[in-house]
Structures are given as structure tokens and as C-alpha cells.
Design brief:
The complex is a heterodimer of chains A (187) and B (506).
Chain A (H helix, E strand, L loop, with lengths): L26 H23 L9 H23 L8 H4 L3 H20 L1 H17 L3 H22 L11 H13 L4
Helix pairs in contact in A: 1-2, 4-5, 5-6
Chain B lengths: L1 H6 L1 H4 L1 H19 L5 H12 L4 H26 L8 H12 L3 H34 L4 H18 L4 H16 L1 E2 L6 E2 L13 H17 L19 H23 L5 H15 L13 H24 L5 H12 L6 H6 L1 H23 L2 H8 L3 H20 L2 H19 L5 H23 L4 H10 L1 H15 L3 H9 L11
Antiparallel strand pairs in B: 1-2
Helix pairs in contact in B: 3-5, 3-16, 4-5, 4-10, 4-14, 4-18, 5-6, 5-7, 5-13, 5-14, 5-16, 6-7, 6-13, 7-11, 7-13, 7-16, 8-9, 8-20, 8-22, 9-20, 10-18, 10-19, 11-12, 11-13, 12-13, 14-20, 18-19, 21-22
The chains are: A mainly alpha (187), B mainly alpha (506).
Chain lengths: 187, 506
């Protein structure tokens, strides 16, 4: 159990084991990426004010990016020394197909959010996502998706008055209509 | 009198009372459903409540926090899946009890003891915070800086894996927090000449990405995990059982408050330490630890709820969060124009007493919801992940968009979500990242103030550190965290004569 202590009380419990006896597939590439990014950021931080003064706006950024660079270089060296776990295929264990599909779905959601509006985009997203994950009948998928969207919409749009892009749906008019019905046209 | 009125604000205003109640109720379920975390819920909620007044917003968040820390124990007992890391220790003895058909009893004891621990934590908060804040007024800028560094390092070092990964994560957070125009000199930092980055990266987008989307993406692997059903009988524990465990719960509450009050460390560490403590000190448990010992439930559950009150101490007095959730709450207070720190206690003491009042109320609601509604509970927890994961993602997008009504924030959120997924996958802790983002400004400002007051002379700075007992203690703390992770430490420990008693298993 001790190996699986997650990082904070309030995160949900996901096993995250930092000490490896063997290298995870793709670990070398990821650590190398962190390394290069850190060094680049260190260069950027140097560009802010150079070594002008200890109190310059670049001082803390330089210190932190230096910490990132040093720690990632050591981690990279350690990762290189570790034996490879097994001939693991990156696609399977690190980026499974469903992961790629969902990242693309989320991206599509964000792109369509503004032009199409929140309600239609969210409905499409939920139907597709629940269908992919649940593999249940279309009827079940659509009913569950629309019901949960209705609850979310009522709670957040009406309850919390969060403004989402209306897009092609005449949302404001609809809410006004609801208010007129329930509130006797007070607002 | 004013203090009493502020303390009772929540109870005297039905709207606030309702919000604390709703928050606690939601928190219990959010905490209990594996895959939903309190940090996730609070970070998503900030963006929805930020157009509200500060009192209702805080009421809701306090409720969710209190309920969520407790809620994790439910699924730990019933399904052997801790709903939250602070319930990991609970599963060790809670699940064996459930297997024997004593799930009801286990839940009852857990609830009462969580309530008790929560109360002790709040009491300590009410007594200690005013004292600490008096003391904190004497803090120098360098002390704040050192405390921030210590906090980030502590989270990094106590999370699993190597300290290096923790340091990397913390430094990354500070760097992300520095993006944009520097508030003092208006110099561009890490903007790569994009005017879009001038205002910095919305920390809420970072938070929702790291704790919402990355978690949901990781959960995609466990979609097919089947759910187990348990029968629950009597829940309310007998007075005899409660009385028997009172001394132990008092001791583990103390552990919880102290660990919670340390910047950066929260209920997960407190509960594991309390479990270990109970295992070492309980002479004759009715059952062996790991086989369903009641003590193994009492200790971690009192400790993690006591840690909630503890975590508020550094947050309210120093503006330095006690754990990830209080880090997010500090963000919420910033959004509402408040500046947590010693001056908040001086200028607006009613805010502090209001939070204490809200915590007490949330604790009472937790007891109420914990001992009732078990049937409904089992229904909700069995919600399939194939529905849950898309809903988390949807809420994350809504949350990220709602803060500034900007699609850019949604893209940032997605970016950090995917990045957070890889960080988690390779064992980098995310707690330090968030702490770094929140503390970046405080660290930067105080470093610059400190070094300017020492006329840019590093030696004078170190001289100042060594000659002030407080700064020296903090500095030694920072050094100790470093040394404790190196081989030097294990070497020094091996030199010490072995004094371990036989029952000290691990």
C-alpha cells in the first residue's frame, strides 16, 4: 500500500509510484522533453533581465527554471541508467487509443463551443463520449446524456448564472420565458 | 460580541446555512465516488461561485471540503477503494470489517470519529490562529519566502517517489505563476512575445486542468472496474464504543492538527501517521491490525478530519496554504478581493470567525449526513464511470470557460490537463505545482523585498537569516527536507544505535 500513496489528501486515489525499479515505456522521451523544455525556459528567464541584480524581475524565474533544469537532468540520467521494464508498446500503456480519442473530443468541444453554442456542443459531446465508454444502446446513451445535461444546465446556467456561449440556441429568450412563467414576469 | 455574531453568521442566515448543508452533502458524495476528488470539485466550483458574494462562496467550499475529507472513507470501507487518498489507511481495517458484515458499524464509528476529529481541529484553529497571526505580524519578507519554499518542498518530499520530481513540480508551478507582466516593473516574463500571455495564465485553468481533466483522462483506463455491493445494517454506534476509543481519537486528532497546520501537508499524511501511531501504541487490539481492528479506523479518520482545521491555520494567518484545497481557497479569496495573511485577521477578524462558524456547521452536517441516507448513498456511488468521466470533462470545460468567458482559458486547461496526465503517469506529484502557482507571487515579491532591504547583498541576507531565530529555524527546516532525502540521511540513521521496540513492525 505504501507504494501507492498519492500526492495529496484531496486528490482522488490514483496510484502514482515515483520510484521505479524499471523504466516505464516512454519515460525516457518524457524526461528528455522536460529537460529540453526546462533548459529553454532557463534561457528565456535569463533573457528577462540577465544577471542585472538579485532583485531583478528575472531573478526568481531564473532560480526556478534552473531548479527545473537541474532536477530534470538528474532524473534523465537516472532514467537512462534504469533497465527497460519490458518491451512495452507506448501506444498501449501510455497513450491508449481511448485517451487519444478523448483528447480529440475535448479539443473538438472547445473549438465548437463558441460557434455552435454550449447546449448543442455539450449534448453532442456527452452522447459520443458515453456511447464510446459505456457501449450501451443508443436509447440509453441519449436519455442519460440529455438528462444529465438538463441537470447541469439548470444548476449552472440558471442556478449559478454562469454565462456560456449561446451559439445557435436562443437561450436568453428561453430563460426569460421560464422566468415569465414561474415568476409572473417579475424580472 | 462581534466575534460571537461573526461566528454565528452561518446559523443566523438561512441561505448560508443551506449552502453549507448542500456543500457538505455534495462533498460526502464527491469524496466517496472514486474518480471525483475534493480538490477537483473545489477548483471547478471556484469558477462558478466567483460572481457570488464572498460569504456564500466560502460557505459552499467549506462544506465540500469538510464533507469530502470524510466521504472518502465510505468507499474505502464498502469497496476497498479509497475515494480519496486520506482514506487509504481507512481501507486497511475498514474493508475487513465490511467483509465480516460489520460495514454499518464501521461507517458509524468512522462518522462519529470524523466528527470528533473535525471538532478538535476547528477548536485548535480558533485558539491558535489569533496567536499565530499576532506572531506572524513580526515575520520579515525573508521569512515568508522561506516558508513558501518550505511548504512547496514539504509537499514534494512527502509525496511518493523522489524529492527531485517534487522539486521539479514545485519549480514548474512557480514558473507558471510568473508568466505575464511582472507587477513591480512591468517587464514581460515568459510571454514569448504573445500579447495573449501578458496577463499571465489563469491559475484556475491550470488547476482544473491538472486536477479535473488529467484525473478524468487517467480514469479512462479503469472504466470497466466492476462495482461491489455490500449490505449495511446498524449505523449509529453505541456510546460504549465511542467512549472506549475517545483517548486514541484525542491523540490522533493532535497528530492530525499538527500535520495539517504544516504548510503543504494535509490529511493523507496525517491519517497514515495516525494509523502507524495507533498500530504501535495499541497494546491489545480486539482484532489484529489489517484484519478489521476498530483502532485502525478510529485513528486515521479522526486525524484526517482534524487536519482540515489545522490546514486553515497557515492559510488564514500567513496566506500560505496547508494543502491543495486551502491553496485553491486562497485563490478564491484573492478573486473576492481579500488578501489572506496576518493583516486579514487584523482588518477583518469577522471573516475568520465566519469561516470557523462555517466549519463547525459543516462538521455537524457531516455527522447528520453520515449517519443517515445510506440507501441513497449506495445508489449514487454505483454510478457507472462511463457516465461520470464525460461529466467531469464537461464540468471542467464549463468551469474553465466561466471565469473569464474566454476560450483561451479552455485551451490552457486542456493543455495542462494533458500535460498533467503525463506528469501523473510518470510519478510526478501535482500538489507542488498548484502550491507553486499560488505561492509564486508571494515568493517573488518577498524575495525581492528582502534582498532590496539588504542592499542586494547576498551575504547580508544570509547574515540576517542566521541572526533571526525564526528565519534560522525555517532555513534549517528547508535544509532538513533536502538532507532527509539524500543518502547522507540514511547513512546517519544507520549509525544511530538501534532502539526499535519489537512491536515496531515497519
Amino acid at each position: 500500500m505504501k507504494d501507492n500513496e498519492p500526492d495529496s489528501c484531496t486528490d482522488s486515489a490514483v496510484p502514482a509510484n515515483g520510484i521505479n525499479s524499471a523504466r516505464k515505456p516512454g519515460e525516457l522521451v518524457f524526461t528528455a522533453f522536460l529537460c529540453i523544455a526546462s533548459v529553454y525556459l532557463l534561457w528565456e528567464a535569463y533573457g528577462i533581465a540577465g544577471f542585472e541584480a538579485l532583485s531583478s524581475p528575472g531573478a526568481v524565474p531564473m532560480a526556478t527554471t534552473a531548479a527545473m533544469a537541474i532536477s530534470s537532468v538528474i532524473l534523465l540520467v537516472r532514467a537512462i541508467r534504469l533497465p527497460r521494464a519490458r518491451a512495452g508498446v507506448i501506444a498501449e500503456s501510455v497513450v491508449p487509443g481511448v485517451f487519444v480519442v478523448f483528447v480529440l473530443l475535448l479539443l473538438a468541444f472547445s473549438v465548437l463551443l463558441k460557434p455552435l453554442g454550449f447546449v448543442p456542443t455539450a449534448a453532442l459531446f456527452l452522447v459520443v463520449a458515453i456511447k464510446i465508454l459505456g457501449r450501451r444502446s443508443w436509447g440509453f446513451t441519449i436519455v442519460v446524456s440529455l438528462a444529465s445535461l438538463l441537470v447541469i444546465w439548470l444548476v449552472f446556467r440558471v442556478g449559478f448564472t454562469v454565462l456560456m456561449p449561446p451559439g445557435i440556441v436562443p437561450e436568453a429568450e428561453f430563460i426569460q420565458f421560464l422566468r415569465n412563467v414561474f415568476g409572473g414576469g417579475r424580472s | 460580541m462581534d466575534t460571537l455574531m461573526a461566528l454565528l453568521t452561518v446559523i443566523t442566515q438561512p441561505q448560508l446555512l443551506l449552502l453549507v448543508g448542500v456543500g457538505t452533502f455534495a462533498g460526502v458524495y464527491v469524496g466517496a465516488i472514486p474518480g471525483l476528488s475534493v480538490t477537483m470539485a473545489v477548483s471547478i466550483l471556484i469558477s462558478f461561485t466567483f460572481s457570488w458574494d464572498v460569504y456564500p462562496a466560502i460557505s459552499l467550499m467549506v462544506g465540500i471540503y469538510m464533507g469530502g475529507v470524510y466521504g472518502g472513507s465510505r468507499t474505502a470501507i464498502l469497496l476497498n477503494i479509497p475515494g480519496a487518498p486520506c482514506a487509504i489507511a481507512t481501507a486497511m481495517d475498514g474493508y475487513p470489517m465490511a467483509q465480516r458484515g460489520e460495514a454499518g458499524q464501521a461507517i458509524g464509528v468512522t462518522t462519529t470519529m470524523s466528527f470528533f476529529g473535525g471538532l478538535v481541529g476547528i477548536l485548535v484553529l480558533a485558539i491558535a490562529a489569533p496567536l499565530v497571526s499576532d506572531f506572524a505580524l513580526r515575520f520579515q519578507p525573508r521569512d515568508y519566502m522561506l516558508l513558501a519554499v518550505l511548504g512547496i518542498l514539504l509537499v514534494g518530499s512527502l509525496s511518493p517517489g523522489s524529492l527531485l520530481k517534487g522539486i521539479f513540480a514545485g519549480a514548474l508551478g512557480i514558473a507558471v505563476g510568473a508568466v505575464g507582466r511582472d507587477p513591480l516593473t512591468f517587464t514581460e516574463r515568459f510571454t514569448f512575445d504573445f500579447s495573449l500571455l501578458d496577463g499571465g495564465i489563469s491559475f484556475i485553468a491550470v488547476m482544473i486542468g491538472m486536477f479535473g481533466v488529467s484525473e478524468a483522462l487517467l480514469q479512462l483506463r479503469h472504466v470497466a472496474t466492476p462495482t461491489v455491493r455490500q449490505k449495511i445494517t446498524r449505523v449509529v454506534p453505541s456510546w460504549k464504543t465511542v467512549r472506549k476509543h475517545l483517548p486514541l481519537s484525542l491523540q490522533s486528532s493532535t497528530i492530525g492538527v499538527v500535520i495539517g497546520a504544516l504548510p503543504g501537508t494535509g490529511g493523507d499524511i496525517a491519517s497514515l501517521m495516525a494509523y502507524d501511531y495507533a498500530k504501535r501504541t495499541t497494546k491489545k487490539p480486539e482484532r489484529e491490525f489489517g484484519d478489521g481492528a476498530m483502532e485502525g479506523l478510529v485513528a486515521p479518520e479522526t486525524a484526517n478530519n482534524a487536519a482540515v482545521g489545522g490546514a486553515f491555520i497557515p492559510m488564514m494567518t500567513l496566506g500560505i496554504p496547508g494543502d491543495a484545497v486551502t491553496a485553491i481557497m486562497i485563490g478564491a479569496l484573492f478573486i473576492h478581493g481579500l488578501n489572506p495573511g496576518p493583516m486579514l485577521m487584523v482588518d477583518q477578524p469577522e471573516m475568520f470567525w465566519f469561516i470557523v462558524g462555517a466549519l463547525v456547521t459543516a462538521n455537524c452536517f457531516m455527522l447528520l449526513f453520515g449517519l443517515t441516507g445510506i440507501k441513497l448513498f449506495t445508489k449514487i456511488v454505483e454510478m457507472p464511470r462511463s457516465v461520470l468521466i464525460p461529466l467531469i470533462m464537461l464540468l471542467s470545460i464549463v468551469g474553465a470557460y466561466a471565469v473569464n468567458n474566454s476560450i483561451t482559458d479552455v485551451y490552457w486547461m486542456l493543455g495542462f490537463g494533458v500535460f498533467g496526465y503525463f506528469l501523473r503517469h510518470y510519478g510526478y506529484p501535482l500538489g507542488p505545482v498548484i502550491l507553486g502557482v499560488i505561492l509564486s507571487r508571494l515568493l517573488d515579491d518577498n524575495w525581492r523585498r528582502a534582498i532590496i532591504s539588504e542592499r542586494e547583498d547576498l551575504w547580508r541576507f544570509f547574515d540576517g537569516v542566521v541572526s533571526s531565530p525564526l528565519s534560522l529555524t525555517l532555513m534549517l527546516g528547508v535544509i532538513l527536507v533536502f538532507v532527509s532525502q539524500t543518502r547522507l540521511w540514511s547513512f546517519a540513521k544507520s549509525l544511530l544505535p538501534r532502539r526499535k521496540s519489537p512491536q515496531e513492525g515497519d
